[in-house]
Amino acid sequence: MANMNWIVAGIGDIARRRVIPAILAERRSTLYGFITRDPVKAEAYPGTRAWPTIEEALEDSAIDAVYIALPVALHADVAIAALRAGKHVLCEKPMALNDAEAGRMVAEARTSGRLLGAAYYRRLYPKLIRAKQLIAEGAIGQPVLVEANCHGWLPEAARGWLLDPKLAGGGPLYDIGSHRIDAMHFLFGRPERARGFLSNAVHRLEVEDSATALMQWPGGLHGVVDVRWNSHMPRDQFRIIGAEGELNLDPLNGPELRVRNAAGTTQVEMLPAHANVHYPLVLNFVGAVLANSPDTLACPAEQGQWTDWLIEQVVRAAGSRA
To answer: What is the DSSP string of 32-69?
Structure first.
């Protein structure tokens, strides 16, 4: 395979702004078509095809890979169908509604021998990669706490499916929390314990408007992820506290990485992400497929499932939303 023919399942906001431009920019990729209930949307991309269902699309043997950009509830069935048909799959986050569904996806990928990746693109942020390197080098001593806060107001009504638990799973825990949880997995691996809280402090919704996840790794490292749709004070904080220093990545989506040691000296590195944060993700996935090197995937499905497991622990521990 010299290049890859992609189909994109779903033509929503993320697909139009990031996923489709990333595929079009990746030189070994061809945007082949779409799965969409509204074929008019596909007309914006001349030369592409459109199918209403994954089953109809998979009748075309020219398809090599599927990017799933659908509501979370549809991820597992579409991914499993594509994998069974011999297609590689890159799936938006979180991978599934729950740990069991994510496990089915992982099992199907192993059976099919095809690659399944989770779209946790922050793993490819240069400053998060650099933070992992600094931690390994002992720049802050033993890590003892990692914390992330991502706060904002309720998403626009145009993304209304995010407010339906049957489609989205939950609120900010699933939406923005999953990215921060995965960033911690990237740095430290899978925690051994997780708990948390869910609330509707301001908005009366079918999903929570705020969530706090608590986790613990072997050796005593603690993690806290607090995500909210109920604050007009936007925050995008991410910090790693060590026994001998601190890594400050605030804001997580910005370029600055600040390294502060116990003596109070701070060094600043500027490490901006790609202008289209999905481009490095697509580049990485195509490279892994063409080289048949699943170990080079930014986020293999087995690790993507860690986040589904952790979210499930938080939901179970919370019991209900206050």
So the answer is: EEEE-S-GGGGGGSTT-EEESSHHHHTT-TT--EEEE-
Rounded Cα distance, 316 and 175, in Å? 18
Q: What's the distance, Cα to Cα, between the start and end of the chain in Å? A: 53
**How is residue 56 written in tokens?**
């109809």
CB–CB of 147/249 below 8 Å? no
Counting residues of the chain whose pLDDT is more than 90, the rounded percentage is: 94
Which residues, other chains included, contact 172 with Cβ-Cβ below 8 Å and sequence gap of 6+?
150, 208, 209, 210, 211, 227, 228, 229
Could you report the per-residue pLDDT of 64-117, keeping only the tens digit for each? 999 999 999 999 999 999 999 999 999 999 999 999 999 999 999 999 999 999
Write down all domains in the chain, each with its CATH number in brackets: 4-120+277-293 (3.40.50.720), 122-275+308-318 (3.30.360.10)
Let me know how long the chain is. Answer: 322
Residue 255 burial (CB count, 10 A): 15
Q: How far apart are CA 97 and CA 99, in angstroms?
A: 7
CA distances from 68 to 95, 113, 191, 303 (A): 10, 18, 27, 17
